[in-house]
Amino acid sequence: MSLLPGEAAAAECQRKLNFLGANASDSRKLEALLICAEETRTDIADLQMRLSAVERDITALERADTRLQTSLDGVDGKISRAIQTSERKTSGELASEARELRAEIREAGGSEAGELRALKTQIAAAERALGKITGRGWEEFGVAQRGVGRTQSNDKDYPIVVAATINVAESNRCHARIKVNGMTVAETKNNNDKWDKACFVTATVPPGANYVLESAPHGGGRPRISKWTELR
Protein backbone atom coordinates (compact mmCIF):
# COMPACT_ATOMS: atom_id res chain seq x y z
CA MET A 1 0.00 0.00 0.00
CA SER A 2 1.42 3.40 -1.00
CA LEU A 3 1.96 6.02 1.71
CA LEU A 4 0.38 9.44 1.80
CA PRO A 5 2.70 12.44 1.31
CA GLY A 6 2.82 13.16 5.07
CA GLU A 7 3.51 9.57 5.88
CA ALA A 8 6.23 9.38 3.22
CA ALA A 9 7.92 12.50 4.63
CA ALA A 10 7.84 11.10 8.15
CA ALA A 11 9.34 7.83 6.94
CA GLU A 12 12.07 9.73 5.10
CA CYS A 13 12.90 11.75 8.24
CA GLN A 14 13.09 8.62 10.29
CA ARG A 15 15.42 7.08 7.68
CA LYS A 16 17.69 10.14 7.80
CA LEU A 17 17.84 10.11 11.59
CA ASN A 18 18.64 6.44 11.56
CA PHE A 19 21.37 7.15 9.05
CA LEU A 20 22.94 9.78 11.34
CA GLY A 21 23.18 7.17 14.02
CA ALA A 22 23.15 7.44 17.77
CA ASN A 23 26.53 9.23 17.92
CA ALA A 24 25.37 12.17 15.81
CA SER A 25 25.34 15.50 17.49
CA ASP A 26 22.16 17.10 18.59
CA SER A 27 22.67 19.94 16.14
CA ARG A 28 22.86 17.50 13.26
CA LYS A 29 19.72 15.75 14.50
CA LEU A 30 17.90 19.09 14.93
CA GLU A 31 18.95 20.20 11.47
CA ALA A 32 17.62 16.94 10.02
CA LEU A 33 14.35 17.34 11.90
CA LEU A 34 13.91 20.92 10.63
CA ILE A 35 14.52 19.78 7.09
CA CYS A 36 11.98 17.00 7.53
CA ALA A 37 9.46 19.39 9.06
CA GLU A 38 9.85 21.79 6.15
CA GLU A 39 9.43 19.00 3.67
CA THR A 40 6.41 17.80 5.59
CA ARG A 41 4.85 21.31 5.51
CA THR A 42 5.47 21.47 1.79
CA ASP A 43 3.86 18.09 1.30
CA ILE A 44 0.91 19.12 3.48
CA ALA A 45 0.45 22.36 1.52
CA ASP A 46 0.56 20.42 -1.70
CA LEU A 47 -1.93 17.94 -0.30
CA GLN A 48 -4.23 20.79 0.77
CA MET A 49 -4.03 22.27 -2.71
CA ARG A 50 -4.87 18.91 -4.22
CA LEU A 51 -7.70 18.50 -1.72
CA SER A 52 -9.09 21.94 -2.65
CA ALA A 53 -8.95 20.96 -6.33
CA VAL A 54 -10.77 17.74 -5.55
CA GLU A 55 -13.37 19.68 -3.55
CA ARG A 56 -13.79 22.06 -6.47
CA ASP A 57 -14.24 19.09 -8.78
CA ILE A 58 -16.78 17.59 -6.41
CA THR A 59 -18.66 20.92 -6.25
CA ALA A 60 -18.64 21.14 -10.04
CA LEU A 61 -19.87 17.56 -10.24
CA GLU A 62 -22.62 18.32 -7.72
CA ARG A 63 -23.68 21.37 -9.73
CA ALA A 64 -23.65 19.32 -12.92
CA ASP A 65 -25.67 16.65 -11.16
CA THR A 66 -28.16 19.30 -10.00
CA ARG A 67 -28.46 20.67 -13.52
CA LEU A 68 -28.85 17.15 -14.83
CA GLN A 69 -31.51 16.39 -12.21
CA THR A 70 -33.29 19.62 -13.07
CA SER A 71 -33.12 18.72 -16.72
CA LEU A 72 -34.38 15.22 -15.96
CA ASP A 73 -37.21 16.70 -13.88
CA GLY A 74 -38.09 18.91 -16.82
CA VAL A 75 -38.04 15.92 -19.14
CA ASP A 76 -40.17 13.97 -16.67
CA GLY A 77 -42.57 16.89 -16.52
CA LYS A 78 -42.78 17.04 -20.29
CA ILE A 79 -43.33 13.31 -20.45
CA SER A 80 -46.01 13.48 -17.75
CA ARG A 81 -47.75 16.37 -19.51
CA ALA A 82 -47.56 14.52 -22.81
CA ILE A 83 -49.02 11.41 -21.19
CA GLN A 84 -51.76 13.45 -19.52
CA THR A 85 -52.53 15.21 -22.80
CA SER A 86 -52.69 11.87 -24.57
CA GLU A 87 -54.88 10.45 -21.82
CA ARG A 88 -57.17 13.48 -21.95
CA LYS A 89 -57.36 13.23 -25.72
CA THR A 90 -58.05 9.52 -25.52
CA SER A 91 -60.59 10.04 -22.75
CA GLY A 92 -62.21 12.82 -24.76
CA GLU A 93 -62.41 10.63 -27.85
CA LEU A 94 -63.84 7.77 -25.81
CA ALA A 95 -66.34 10.11 -24.14
CA SER A 96 -67.36 11.46 -27.54
CA GLU A 97 -67.82 7.96 -28.92
CA ALA A 98 -69.78 7.01 -25.80
CA ARG A 99 -72.04 10.05 -26.23
CA GLU A 100 -72.64 9.22 -29.88
CA LEU A 101 -73.39 5.60 -28.98
CA ARG A 102 -75.80 6.65 -26.24
CA ALA A 103 -77.51 9.03 -28.67
CA GLU A 104 -77.90 6.22 -31.22
CA ILE A 105 -79.26 3.93 -28.51
CA ARG A 106 -81.70 6.61 -27.32
CA GLU A 107 -82.75 7.32 -30.90
CA ALA A 108 -83.24 3.64 -31.66
CA GLY A 109 -84.93 3.08 -28.33
CA GLY A 110 -87.13 6.12 -28.82
CA SER A 111 -88.13 4.96 -32.29
CA GLU A 112 -88.86 1.45 -31.07
CA ALA A 113 -90.65 2.86 -28.02
CA GLY A 114 -92.76 5.09 -30.27
CA GLU A 115 -93.62 2.19 -32.53
CA LEU A 116 -94.38 0.06 -29.48
CA ARG A 117 -96.64 2.76 -28.01
CA ALA A 118 -98.44 3.16 -31.34
CA LEU A 119 -98.87 -0.61 -31.58
CA LYS A 120 -100.16 -0.77 -28.01
CA THR A 121 -102.59 2.04 -28.79
CA GLN A 122 -103.86 0.20 -31.85
CA ILE A 123 -104.18 -3.03 -29.88
CA ALA A 124 -106.06 -1.25 -27.10
CA ALA A 125 -108.40 0.37 -29.61
CA ALA A 126 -108.97 -2.99 -31.30
CA GLU A 127 -109.64 -4.60 -27.95
CA ARG A 128 -112.12 -1.88 -27.04
CA ALA A 129 -113.84 -2.22 -30.38
CA LEU A 130 -113.86 -6.00 -30.06
CA GLY A 131 -115.26 -5.70 -26.55
CA LYS A 132 -117.99 -3.44 -27.77
CA ILE A 133 -118.78 -5.71 -30.69
CA THR A 134 -118.75 -8.93 -28.70
CA GLY A 135 -120.66 -7.33 -25.88
CA ARG A 136 -123.36 -5.71 -28.00
CA GLY A 137 -126.92 -6.93 -28.27
CA TRP A 138 -130.13 -6.39 -30.17
CA GLU A 139 -132.18 -3.32 -29.28
CA GLU A 140 -135.76 -2.75 -30.33
CA PHE A 141 -137.04 0.68 -31.36
CA GLY A 142 -140.63 1.92 -31.58
CA VAL A 143 -142.28 4.19 -34.09
CA ALA A 144 -141.47 7.19 -31.92
CA GLN A 145 -137.76 6.50 -32.39
CA ARG A 146 -137.67 5.09 -35.90
CA GLY A 147 -139.91 5.71 -38.88
CA VAL A 148 -140.18 5.33 -42.64
CA GLY A 149 -138.26 8.07 -44.39
CA ARG A 150 -136.56 9.26 -41.19
CA THR A 151 -132.77 9.47 -41.52
CA GLN A 152 -130.67 8.08 -38.66
CA SER A 153 -126.92 8.11 -37.99
CA ASN A 154 -124.66 5.43 -36.57
CA ASP A 155 -122.93 7.25 -33.69
CA LYS A 156 -120.91 4.17 -32.67
CA ASP A 157 -117.26 3.62 -33.52
CA TYR A 158 -118.08 0.18 -34.91
CA PRO A 159 -120.64 -1.12 -37.45
CA ILE A 160 -124.22 -1.83 -36.44
CA VAL A 161 -126.81 -4.08 -38.05
CA VAL A 162 -130.29 -2.73 -38.86
CA ALA A 163 -133.28 -5.03 -39.37
CA ALA A 164 -136.75 -3.68 -40.19
CA THR A 165 -140.09 -5.15 -41.17
CA ILE A 166 -142.78 -3.16 -43.01
CA ASN A 167 -146.35 -4.33 -42.78
CA VAL A 168 -149.16 -3.37 -45.17
CA ALA A 169 -152.53 -4.42 -43.83
CA GLU A 170 -154.56 -3.48 -46.88
CA SER A 171 -154.61 -5.51 -50.07
CA ASN A 172 -151.50 -3.87 -51.51
CA ARG A 173 -148.07 -4.89 -52.52
CA CYS A 174 -145.16 -3.82 -50.22
CA HIS A 175 -141.75 -2.49 -51.09
CA ALA A 176 -138.91 -1.69 -48.63
CA ARG A 177 -135.28 -0.65 -48.99
CA ILE A 178 -132.49 0.59 -46.73
CA LYS A 179 -130.14 3.30 -47.96
CA VAL A 180 -126.74 3.91 -46.36
CA ASN A 181 -125.22 7.31 -47.19
CA GLY A 182 -127.67 7.59 -50.06
CA MET A 183 -126.89 4.18 -51.53
CA THR A 184 -129.45 1.36 -51.56
CA VAL A 185 -127.79 -1.59 -49.84
CA ALA A 186 -130.85 -3.80 -49.16
CA GLU A 187 -134.25 -4.03 -50.85
CA THR A 188 -137.24 -6.35 -50.91
CA LYS A 189 -140.68 -6.44 -52.57
CA ASN A 190 -143.87 -8.42 -52.11
CA ASN A 191 -146.15 -8.41 -55.14
CA ASN A 192 -148.75 -10.75 -53.65
CA ASP A 193 -152.12 -8.97 -53.55
CA LYS A 194 -153.34 -10.97 -50.62
CA TRP A 195 -154.00 -9.32 -47.31
CA ASP A 196 -151.42 -8.55 -44.60
CA LYS A 197 -148.32 -7.97 -46.68
CA ALA A 198 -144.88 -7.74 -44.97
CA CYS A 199 -141.45 -6.83 -46.28
CA PHE A 200 -138.25 -7.43 -44.30
CA VAL A 201 -134.87 -5.76 -44.97
CA THR A 202 -131.56 -5.75 -43.11
CA ALA A 203 -128.20 -4.01 -43.64
CA THR A 204 -124.89 -3.30 -41.92
CA VAL A 205 -124.20 0.39 -41.30
CA PRO A 206 -120.55 1.54 -40.91
CA PRO A 207 -119.53 3.92 -38.10
CA GLY A 208 -120.67 7.50 -38.69
CA ALA A 209 -122.83 6.58 -41.72
CA ASN A 210 -126.40 7.77 -42.26
CA TYR A 211 -129.18 5.26 -42.95
CA VAL A 212 -132.83 5.48 -43.80
CA LEU A 213 -135.69 3.03 -44.42
CA GLU A 214 -137.82 3.87 -47.45
CA SER A 215 -141.03 2.31 -48.78
CA ALA A 216 -142.93 2.54 -52.06
CA PRO A 217 -146.55 1.60 -51.32
CA HIS A 218 -148.81 0.31 -54.03
CA GLY A 219 -152.52 0.90 -54.60
CA GLY A 220 -152.93 3.45 -51.84
CA GLY A 221 -151.88 1.20 -48.94
CA ARG A 222 -149.98 2.92 -46.16
CA PRO A 223 -146.88 0.99 -44.92
CA ARG A 224 -146.12 0.94 -41.24
CA ILE A 225 -143.19 -0.41 -39.28
CA SER A 226 -144.15 -3.56 -37.51
CA LYS A 227 -140.62 -4.36 -36.24
CA TRP A 228 -137.39 -2.40 -36.04
CA THR A 229 -134.32 -3.78 -34.27
CA GLU A 230 -130.67 -2.93 -34.34
CA LEU A 231 -127.61 -4.90 -33.25
CA ARG A 232 -125.61 -2.21 -31.41
Task: Give a brief rundown of this model.
54% of the residues lie in helices and 22% in strands. By secondary structure, the chain is α+β, with helices and mostly antiparallel strands.
Structure description:
- With 232 residues, this protein is an alpha+beta fold.
- It contains 2 helices and 8 strands.
- It has helices at 5-20, 26-135; strands at 138-140, 152-153, 160-168, 174-180, 183-190, 197-205, 210-215, 224-231.
- The strands form 2 sheets. A 4-stranded antiparallel β-sheet has the order 1-8-3-6, with no helix packed on it. A 4-stranded antiparallel β-sheet has the order 2-7-4-5, with no helix packed on it.
- A hairpin with a 2-residue loop joins β4 and β5.
- α1 packs antiparallel against α2.
- The protein is rod-shaped and about 195 Å long.
- The N and C termini lie far apart (130 Å).
Structure summary, number of beta strands: 8
Regarding quaternary structure, what we see is single chain
**Overall 3D form:** rod-shaped
Distance, first to last CA: 130 Å
Largest sheet: 4 strands, antiparallel
> Which radius of gyration do the C-alpha atoms yield?
65 Å
Strand content: 15-25%
Q: What is the overall pLDDT average?
A: 75
Secondary-structure element pattern, one letter each: HHEEEEEEEE
Unreliable stretches, pLDDT < 50, 5 or more residues?
Answer: none
Report the total helices. 2
| Secondary structure: helix percent | 40-55%
User: Widest sheet: strand order?
Assistant: 1-8-3-6
SS content category: alpha+beta
